[in-house]
Amino acid sequence: MRHPIDRLVSHYIHEWSVGLYDCEIEEAVVSFPELVAYGQCATQLKPYFDAFGRDAVLPVFFDRLIREPQAELE
Fold it and tell me: Binning pLDDT at 50, 70 and 90, where does residue 66 land?
């Protein structure tokens, strides 16, 4: 998982670069609610927790994985 704001900015830049968004990021956040929704990790993880149990799901954080891969996976 990435920090929600980092993820949102990256998503916006990608969509803008391929021509799907033609507005500033401030307007895109209001006009395209999926930019915020995609960063709501708890909402996305819940179905996996429900189906497999919390002990069977390993949420991994991108920044920590880059800094200390072994520690994050442990």
Answer: very high
Percent above pLDDT 90 for the chain: 95
Residue 12 CA: distances (Å) to CA of 9, 21, 45, 53, 55: 5, 8, 22, 33, 33
SS3 call for 19: coil
Give backbone dihedrals phi and psi of 66, rounded to 5 degrees, phi first.
-70, -45
24 burial type by CB count under 10 A (0-12 exposed, 13-18 middle, 19+ buried): exposed
Measured CA to CA, the distance from residue 29 to residue 59 in angstroms comes to 26
End-to-end CA distance of the chain: 16
Q: What is the Cα 39 distance to its own chain's centre?
A: 4
